[in-house]
Amino acid sequence: MIIIIIITIIIIIIIIIIIIIIFIFITIIIIIIIIIIIIIIIIIIIIIVIIAVA
After folding, report:
1. Rounded to whole angstroms, how far apart are CA atoms 1 and 7?
2. CA-CA distances (angstroms) from residue 23 to 9, 29, 41?
3. How far apart are CA 6 and CA 13, in angstroms?
4. What is the pLDDT, as a whole number, of residue 49?
5. pLDDT per residue over 13-24, tens digit each?
């Protein structure tokens, strides 16, 4: 009975760790995408300003 409880706890801990890792990974990907979008927008704005000035 104790062994079953221990195994269950270990499985739950592993599942929680996997979920946390997936969440962190997804968060990092979203942040990277947002940064890339911001950089692209800034570059577009700079190009528009250069064209407008020239």
Report:
1. 10
2. 21, 10, 27
3. 11
4. 94
5. 999 999 999 999
| Distance in angstroms (rounded) separating the CA atoms of residues 14 and 2 | 18
pLDDT band of residue 32 (cuts 50, 70, 90) is: very high
Q: Which residues of 39-52 are buried (b: 16+ CB within 10 A; e: fewer)?
A: eeeeeeeeeeeeee
What pTM was estimated for this model as a whole? 0.62
CA dist 21 and 14 (Å) reads 11
How far is Cα 44 from Cα 38, in angstroms, rounded to an integer?
10
- Give the model's pLDDT for residue 1: 85
Distance CA 31, CA 18 (A): 20
